[in-house]
Structure formats: structure tokens, C-alpha cells
Design goal:
Rossmann fold, binds zinc ion, 8 helices, seven-stranded mixed beta sheet
């Protein structure tokens, strides 16, 4: 039996003209895809970022107020975005680590897709094995489903009543994936990713940033070993058509 990837062509993320990056928390873009996003921006592509939660639970220090941490993390994210080059930032401000209601975030992401009309959506992979953080699982699944359904006017019809139009996303890509099919040479923009991660001071105190960056670099070097590049970020890149009913899409 021919595989779905042979019957439906796999899209090329680097060829996209516009991209909406969706992150559960204010640092996931940089960690999961920072060097690739910087590369796309330097190639003239239009990039927007949507942050789903307020980041208010991202601390081990109980003396920090959630609202204070959320403000700090938003500022850190804005500084990091300047380094990566993302100028168009959007925030949904759902509670970090709270009871993210799937239908609500799916509707909010659908509206954003219809407003911004990106050719591609890039989000964390909700099918990452052993991922325990439900913010990541629900954000990834809601974004993928929103990208799949945003072109159907009867889906979230309130958008259409409010003057938005259905929009067809062409590429759905996933960072933090265990099933990559796209390996991007990011040697030229790796330093920007490292500098952007350094902006998230609230997340990486006491030398944790250096340890974390060492791990990220070792993985980027390992991914690059087979391709001849120096440093690689890896993604699962599919079309919306691959994201429904095909049992072998995960193998593509
Ligand atoms: Zn996160």
C-alpha cells in the first residue's frame, strides 16, 4: 500500500511566505523553533506569534505573585522577540497551568488564524510521547484542529458573523516533535536563539540557562550529524489534509 506521504505531497516549511507561531508559554517559540523562525524572518517571511497562556505558573518560588510573574514573562518574551525578529505579537492570556478549556482555546486560535491569514501554522507537537504538560498538549491539538477547520464557515460561525472570512492554512508544522520529517540548517541563526533564551531570566536563574543551552546545542549537533550541517532544528511538517483519518501520517 502506498503511503499517504507519497500520495499527498509534503509541504516545505522554508518556502512558506507567512507563518503564525503558536506557543503555550512565553518561551516556547525560542526553545522549540527560535533559530528557524529567525532564519525565516531574515529570508523576508512574515511571522506572527500567538502566546496562549499568561505564564503565571512558571516558577518554583511561591513568594512571587502570579500577576507579577506574568508581567515579567511578557516583558522577557517581548525582548526575546526583538532578537529573533518577530514584531507581531498576540496574547490570549489563558491561565498558565489552569483548566484550559479546549473548545475555548480552539475558538480563540481559529479567530486569530482568520484574522492574520497565515499560510503556515507552527505549534508544539501534541503527540509528543511522555509530555505531561496539558498546556502543551491542548495548545498543540487545538492549533492543529483550528488550522484544519478554519476554512469551514460553519466552524466557529461567530467569526463569520463578526466579518472574518474562512481561511485555508496550507502547512501545519510542529516543534518539540518525536517524529521529525524536516531538518533545517540553523547554524547562521543559532546565536540569536541562544541570546533570546537568555532573555527569559525568570525561567533560568542560577546558571540554569547555560546548562539548558548546552543540552539544546548537543541535540542540535546530533540532529545535524546525518545531514552535514553544523546545527539543526527538527520539525514535523504536514498539510492540513494529512491531519485527519490517515493512519500512516505520523510516519510521513
Ligand atoms: Zn511551555
Amino acid at each position: 500500500m502506498r503511503k499517504i506521504c507519497d500520495l499527498m505531497p509534503m509541504p516545505d516549511l522554508l518556502q512558506t511566505e507567512s507563518l503564525l507561531v503558536i506557543q503555550p508559554h512565553p518561551d516556547d517559540l525560542e526553545i522549540g523553533a527560535g533559530a528557524t523562525v529567525a532564519k525565516l524572518i531574515r529570508a523576508g517571511k512574515k511571522v506572527s506569534c500567538l502566546t496562549v497562556t499568561d505564564g503565571a505558573a512558571g516558577t518554583y518560588d511561591g513568594s512571587v505573585e502570579g500577576s507579577e510573574l506574568a508581567a515579567t514573562r511578557k516583558a522577557e518574551s517581548e525582548t526575546a522577540a526583538k532578537i529573533i525578529g518577530v514584531k507581531d505579537l498576540h496574547w490570549l492570556n489563558f491561565p498558565d497551568g489552569g483548566n484550559l478549556i479546549y473548545d475555548e482555546i480552539r475558538a480563540a486560535i481559529t479567530s486569530m488564524i482568520r484574522r492574520l491569514k497565515p499560510e503556515s501554522v507552527l505549534v508544539c507537537d501534541p503527540w509528543l510521547p511522555y509530555e505531561v504538560h496539558t498546556d502543551h498538549i491542548r495548545t498543540g491539538l487545538a492549533a492543529a484542529e483550528a488550522a484544519f477547520l478554519a476554512n469551514m464557515p460553519r466552524f466557529c460561525p461567530v467569526d463569520i458573523e463578526n466579518g472574518l472570512q474562512p481561511h485555508a492554512v496550507k502547512i501545519v508544522a510542529f516543534y518539540y516533535t518525536a517524529y521529525p520529517n524536516t531538518f533545517i540548517d540553523v547554524a547562521d541563526t543559532w546565536t540569536l536563539k541562544m541570546q533570546a533564551i537568555d532573555c527569559h531570566v525568570s525561567q533560568f536563574s542560577g546558571g540554569k540557562a547555560e546548562d539548558f543551552k548546552t543540552i539544546l546545542q548537543a541535540r542540535a549537533e546530533a540532529l545535524a550529524a546525518e545531514s552535514g550541517a553544523a546545527l539543526v532544528e527538527a520539525f514535523k511538517v504536514l498539510s492540513p489534509g494529512h491531519l485527519h483519518i490517515f493512519e500512516d501520517a505520523w510516519l510521513s
